[in-house]
Each structure stands twice: as structure tokens, then as C-alpha cells.
Design goal:
This protein is of the alpha+beta class. The protein has one domain: Methyl-cpg-binding Protein 2, Chain A. The chain is about 15% helix and about 20% strand. It contains three helices and eight strands. A five-stranded antiparallel β-sheet has the order 3-2-1-4-8. Strands 5-6-7 form a three-stranded antiparallel β-sheet. Strand 1 and strand 2 form a beta hairpin. The longest helix is centred in the last third of the chain and has 10 residues. The radius of gyration is 17 Å and the shape is flat. The chain starts with a helix and ends in a 13-residue tail after the last strand. One of its GO terms (cellular component) is nucleus. It is found in: Nucleus. Pfam families: MBD, zf-CW. Its main location: nucleus. InterPro entries: DNA-bd_dom_sf (IPR016177), Methyl_CpG_DNA-bd (IPR001739), Znf_CW (IPR011124).
């Protein structure tokens, strides 16, 4: 199986937000639902060195049925492996554009500031030095997930 199919993926519904976090087993390729965004980001941040396998989920093995099936009942997106996990106190947000052309990525800071680029993160850390002790600009990635076009509802596919 090619590397992209072994990456962690999450699905979005047509309300333009992520409603299920999931990861694909590197051995049996079944999808396992991950309960929280934080757990998903932890898995994603070390995926290349420590691929996910079913046995990492308590009480689950490759012999068990998949938690969720990859199909067109929802729109799926795939995150790159090894993106940094979100720094403590910050929240990574992903929003699907209405035309399904791409997702926008931003971070909400602990003090409510919304950060939309690495330049904004750098300015934020300069303005609020109390965060510099625990947070680096390199702790953020604005790389958006790839939208799996075969799962976009046909009536919503962006026309070329």
C-alpha cells in the first residue's frame, strides 16, 4: 500500500467541520476512530517513526471489524504525517471552504487570538512573551489536509 494510504485521515461533514478523527492501521489498513483531536495529533506527530497499528487502541486487534469505512457517506481529508501536534493551550482549527476547493487552517491561542500564518504566530509570541518559554514558531503548521475528491458529493464538486 502506498504511503499516503497509510497516513492518518479524518473526515468532515458538509457542515464544513471535522466530526470524526480516524487513523488507518499500517498493518491491516482498517480505520480506527480516535476519540479526540489531541489523541489524533499525538499519533500524527510521530507517525513516520511510530506507525499506528490496531493493537495501540485498547482492546482492539486487526481481527476486529473497522470502526468506520472509507466511503462517500462523508467527505474525507488526509493530514500529512508528522505535522507537529498543537501546543498546549492552543487549538488547531480546520475549516472546509464552501466550494470544497481546500481547507483553511488556523490556531486559536489561549488568550483568544486567532493565528492564521507563521508570521502571525511570530508576532503573537513577540507581543505575548509569556508564551515563548513553552512555544516555538516551529510548533505550528498551517499545512491543510488534502481533500479526498472521490468523497465530495457530486453536486458540490468544484467545476474547473
Amino acid at each position: 500500500m502506498e504511503e499516503g494510504q497509510q497516513s492518518k485521515r479524518h473526515s468532515v461533514n458538509t457542515s464544513n467541520f471535522i466530526d470524526i478523527w480516524s487513523v488507518q492501521c499500517g498493518e491491516c489498513f482498517k480505520w480506527r476512530v480516535i476519540p479526540t483531536q489531541e489523541e489524533f495529533e499525538e499519533i500524527r506527530s510521530t507517525f513516520a517513526e511510530d506507525p499506528f497499528v490496531c493493537s495501540k487502541k485498547p482492546g482492539i486487534s486487526c481481527d476486529d471489524p473497522a470502526d468506520i469505512e472509507y466511503d462517500d457517506s462523508r467527505t474525507w481529508v488526509i493530514d500529512k504525517p508528522n505535522l507537529p501536534k498543537c501546543p498546549a493551550g492552543f487549538r488547531r482549527k480546520l475549516v472546509m471552504r464552501k466550494d470544497f476547493s481546500k481547507m483553511d487552517c488556523y490556531y486559536d491561542s489561549p488568550n483568544g487570538k486567532r493565528l492564521r500564518s507563521l508570521a502571525e504566530v511570530a508576532r503573537f509570541l513577540d507581543k505575548y512573551p509569556e508564551y515563548k518559554e513553552d512555544v516555538l514558531v516551529s510548533d505550528f503548521s498551517f499545512t491543510p489536509p488534502k481533500i479526498m475528491e472521490d468523497t465530495i458529493p457530486p453536486d458540490l464538486v468544484k467545476k474547473a
